[in-house]
């Protein structure tokens, strides 16, 4: 920043040429644009710097001005920025999303709805199903409703969904994923007994219906051709289930739902009794009930005599066989989106004396949609033992324990008996053998009495006379061992006595 | 002279002044002017930006960003996992203050510029308003959509403040049973049932596909409502009622009095009567009760006739059993619980009247404002 390179009179600040101050060489008045230009450049740079800093300050101090700053900085070129960045108008033609029998070929979008409550234990199983679904994943939008959960359902769901969406396999991620949180103040606890108790059913079903409606109304889009309702606690289902159900091209379609059981309960059992055909008895019964009453299937209180989808299953039947239904169960429903668009929902009030999925089927029927079940196409619900089952299992467990205890006691007793009252047959035989031997030797002696070997035989007799008293005294291990070694030679029953001894030893150890 | 300039320019004071000036200039450019127009502009702009969804696969009540992220491996990034906490979604009497989102739903058969102008003039913050239309897939519908899209295009590219959060246009997937939209033909009794059942399906299709997870209130507004108070949304939500309906009137030229006058138009808002109920009991399960027909003497109390046009008290509220749909404010929760417009005789009622009945079955009471008017187009 040397500003004093020239005097005001125009002379150079320092001598040029040959040290002569007054040199008038033609180079004297050569203009010096370089420093001037540089200065101007510097000034401009500084101005820009200051402008930038002040802008930055503004942005930092007043974040709300950011939106205003952007267009100003871009000199109005981007002033219509929202137009280019944000799309506000959407256009949909609903006649393009009617739903056909081969939707996966036509790229029809499916909304998959799953209501969840305290379901963290089912999620890993559910996600393994999701990963294996064969319907093109990008055409499926997932919708979850997490309500009144006391466990970590939400956190777990998040982690697993993130994992699913960031999967390296480009075919794995699903379409739009919505996780809805809404608590309905569930008064009924979720354990199996109270869940399936008759008295609680009507209220519980209405709350469930409400939850389903909230989930659907928040996530159904004009782009959906199909809606697939799937519970998280389905244990086994074909991966092709969406295509399998879609192929029938019905407005509402449900598979048969069974559940596996432990062997002592018969191995398997119909689970979903909400899929049925209407019967005269049930209609007559409905007439007698008041406006808010709800008929629930599967309880002795209402004998409806309806043909249930579940009971019509033949394991070897044609899985494509269809059956007209009036009420449906909610474990796995595939419905065309137009059914829901035209207003069919899960009534949270008593609709024709039904609520939730059963009333859904009734309402769909009322609006002229086809409602169909597949009796021989089965998916398997998770088996959760009921309180009765649990009690029974407890009883069985106790029985088993008692039996085991008895057995072990029996074993112990027999071991003790074995120890106390040892089978002395081999020993006695050994003794007998010795005695026989002795007798033999005596005989020999007798025969040899004529022979002059008497003192030797007397010695041997002395020895045998000494030993017999030791035989029962088994405390003397060495003695018995010595006996054993002797027995080995003489008695054949030795192997029989050995196991008995070992068993006794085991019993003692215990 | 050429010598003096650098001296002046190089004074440090100049720089300070320049900086000060630059700062002042920027402040002047960007500062919110006291007229407050810019403030809301900036706020709403930001709100819009933040409210926008990342992916086109998102609720229609949200605008979405056009540019889509791409994954490292070159594939387009899958849609994100989006959370909606509906526990914190409120619908209260201070709707505008709490920033509650309103969805205006309109079944559209014909486009009236007056209707759109009236909607644009609504004083509720526009960034909180989403609009949904459903238009029949007919020739008339095409004309209406063309006109509608032009009007929407103008508004959505106009001043930021008057732009709506999002607009969805749906084309109906079924044909309306009645080709003629002619007033007389439309109101014939035998045609009414079919017409209103089809109307119900249209309303339900529109409602359940556009409701989304963010809506607090749903305002049903017919496409032939051409005049309403600008504070319509605030006024209706202020009552904090699950279902509330203003009185729908029509302006006409009174030849007797030789001046413009008003007359009641919508007769679907009523209080039930004993004779209507006994009439319903004598009907078959597929018959419906309709209001305003001599064949069906219901003797219901009609809100249309309860208005006090001379000395109106717009805050006066009455309980109703049936509601009309020309203008109808509903808490989104009511629809979410399942209250829809029955396209089949529901307690011998269809469409909006059946809706009021269904809401009642779900535990929601409908209300009416006999002295609060909206005006129907006069053809």
**Rg calc of chain B:** 26 Å
Series of secondary-structure elements of chain B, N-terminal to C-terminal: HHHEEEHEHEHHEEHEEEHEEEHHE
- State the helical fraction of chain A: 40-55%
What low-confidence regions of chain A span 5 or more consecutive residues with pLDDT below 50? 78-83, 462-510
Oligomeric state as shown: heterodimer
Shape assignment of chain B: globular
User: Would you list the SSEs of chain A in sequence order as H and E?
Assistant: HHHEEHEHEHEHHEEHEEHEEHHEHHHHH
Amino-to-carboxy terminus distance of chain B: 80 Å
Radius of gyration of chain A: 47 Å
Top CATH class of the largest domain in chain A: Alpha Beta
Mean pLDDT of chain B: 85
Structure notes:
- The complex is a heterodimer of chains A (510) and B (379).
- Chain A is built from 17 helices and twelve strands.
- Chain A is an alpha/beta fold.
- Chain A folds into three domains: 53 residues; 290 residues, Spore Coat Polysaccharide Biosynthesis Protein SpsA, Chain A (Alpha-Beta Complex); 118 residues, no CATH class.
- In chain A, strand 3, helix 5 and strand 4 form a beta-alpha-beta unit.
- Chain B is built from eleven helices and 14 strands.
- In chain B, strand 3, helix 4 and strand 4 form a beta-alpha-beta unit.
- Chain B is globular and about 100 Å long.
- The N and C termini of chain B lie far apart (80 Å).
- About 2% of the residues of chain B have low confidence.
- The chains are: A alpha/beta (510), B alpha/beta (379).
- Chains A and B meet through helix 1, helix 2, helix 3, strand 1 and strand 2 of A and helix 1, helix 2, helix 3, strand 1 and strand 2 of B.
- Chain B: It is a single-pass type II membrane protein.
């Amino acid at each position: 920043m040397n500003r004093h390179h020239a005097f005001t009179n125009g002379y150079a600040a320092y001598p040029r040429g040959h040290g002569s101050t007054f040199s008038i060489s033609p180079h004297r008045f050569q203009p010096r644009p370089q420093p001037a230009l540089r200065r101007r450049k510097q000034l401009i740079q500084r101005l820009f710097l200051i402008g930038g800093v002040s802008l930055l300050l503004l942005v930092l101090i007043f974040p709300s001005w950011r939106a205003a700053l952007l267009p100003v900085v871009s000199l109005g070129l981007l002033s219509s920025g929202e137009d280019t960045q944000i799309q506000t108008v959407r256009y949909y033609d609903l006649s393009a999303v009617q739903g056909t029998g081969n939707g996966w070929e036509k790229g029809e979008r499916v909304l998959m709805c799953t209501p969840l409550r305290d379901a963290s234990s089912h999620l890993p199983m559910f996600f393994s199903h999701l990963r294996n679904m064969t319907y093109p994943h990008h055409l499926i939008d997932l919708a979850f409703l997490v309500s009144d959960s006391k466990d970590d359902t939400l956190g777990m769901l998040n982690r697993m969904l993130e994992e699913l969406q960031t999967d390296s396999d480009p075919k794995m991620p699903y379409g739009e994923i919505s996780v809805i949180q809404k608590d309905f103040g569930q008064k009924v606890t979720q354990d199996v007994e109270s869940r399936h108790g008759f008295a609680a059913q009507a209220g519980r079903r209405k709350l469930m219906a409400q939850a389903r409606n909230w989930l659907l109304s928040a996530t159904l889009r004009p782009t959906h051709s199909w809606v697939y309702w799937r519970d998280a606690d389905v244990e086994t289902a074909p991966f092709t289930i969406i295509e399998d159900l879609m192929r029938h091209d019905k407005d509402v379609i449900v598979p048969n739902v069974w559940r596996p059981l432990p062997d002592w309960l018969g191995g398997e059992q119909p689970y979903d009794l909400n899929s049925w055909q209407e019967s005269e008895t049930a209609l007559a019964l409905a007439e007698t009930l008041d406006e808010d009453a709800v008929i629930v299937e599967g309880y002795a209180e209402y004998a409806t005599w309806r043909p249930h989808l579940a009971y019509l299953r033949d394991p070897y039947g044609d899985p494509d066989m269809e059956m007209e239904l009036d009420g449906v169960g909610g474990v796995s429903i595939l419905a065309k989106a137009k059914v829901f668009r035209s207003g069919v929902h899960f009534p949270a009030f008593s609709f024709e004396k039904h609520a939730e999925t059963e009333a859904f089927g009734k309402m769909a029927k009322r609006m002229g949609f086809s409602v169909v079940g597949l009796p021989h196409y089965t998916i398997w619900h998770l088996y959760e033992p009921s309180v009765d089952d649990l009690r029974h299992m407890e009883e069985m467990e106790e029985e088993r324990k008692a039996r085991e205890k008895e057995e072990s006691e029996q074993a112990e007793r027999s071991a003790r008996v074995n120890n106390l009252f040892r089978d002395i047959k081999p020993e006695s035989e050994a003794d007998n053998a010795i005695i026989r031997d002795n007798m033999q030797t005596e005989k020999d002696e007798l025969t040899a009495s004529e022979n002059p070997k008497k003192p030797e035989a007397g010695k041997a007799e002395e020895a045998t006379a000494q030993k017999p008293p030791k035989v029962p005294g088994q405390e003397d291990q060495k003695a018995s061992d010595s006996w054993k070694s002797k027995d080995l030679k003489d008695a054949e029953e030795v192997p029989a006595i050995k196991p008995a001894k070992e068993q006794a030893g085991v019993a003692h150890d215990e | 002279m050429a010598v003096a300039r650098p001296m002046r320019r190089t004074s440090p004071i100049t720089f300070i002044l320049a900086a000060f000036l630059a700062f002042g200039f920027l402040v002047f450019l960007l500062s919110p002017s006291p007229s407050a127009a810019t403030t809301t502009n900036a706020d709403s702009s930001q709100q819009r930006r933040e409210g926008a969804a990342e992916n086109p696969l998102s609720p229609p009540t949200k605008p979405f960003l056009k540019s889509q992220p791409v994954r490292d491996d070159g594939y387009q990034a899958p849609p994100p996992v989006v959370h909606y906490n509906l526990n914190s979604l409120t619908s209260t009497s201070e709707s505008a203050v709490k920033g509650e989102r309103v969805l205006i739903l309109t079944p559209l058969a014909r486009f009236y510029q007056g209707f759109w102008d009236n909607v644009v003039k609504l004083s509720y913050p526009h960034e909180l308003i989403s609009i949904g239309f459903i238009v029949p897939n007919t020739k008339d519908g095409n004309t209406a959509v063309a006109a509608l899209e032009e009007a929407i295009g103008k508004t959505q590219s106009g001043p930021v403040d008057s732009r709506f959060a999002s607009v969805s246009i749906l084309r109906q997937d079924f044909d309306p049973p009645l080709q003629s939209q002619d007033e007389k033909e439309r109101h014939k009794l035998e045609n009414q049932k079919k017409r209103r059942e089809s109307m119900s399906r249209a309303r339900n299709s529109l409602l359940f596909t556009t409701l989304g997870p963010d809506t607090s209130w749903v305002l049903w507004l017919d496409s032939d409502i051409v005049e309403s108070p600008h504070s319509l949304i605030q006024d209706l939500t202020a009552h904090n009622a699950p279902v509330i309906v203003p009185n729908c009137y029509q302006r006409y030229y009174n030849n007797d009095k030789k001046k413009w006058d008003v007359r009641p138009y919508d007769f679907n808002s009523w209080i039930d009567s004993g004779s209507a109920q006994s009439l319903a009991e004598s009907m078959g399960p597929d018959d419906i009760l309709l209001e305003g027909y001599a064949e069906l003497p219901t003797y219901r109390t009609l809100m249309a006739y309860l208005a006090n046009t001379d000395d109106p008290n717009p805050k006066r509220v009455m309980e109703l059993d049936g509601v009309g749909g020309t203008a109808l404010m509903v808490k989104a929760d009511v629809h979410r619980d399942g209250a829809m417009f029955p396209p089949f005789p529901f307690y011998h009622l269809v469409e909006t009247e059946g809706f009021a009945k269904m809401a009642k079955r779900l535990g929601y009471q409908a209300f009416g404002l006999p002295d609060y008017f909206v005006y129907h187009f006069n053809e």
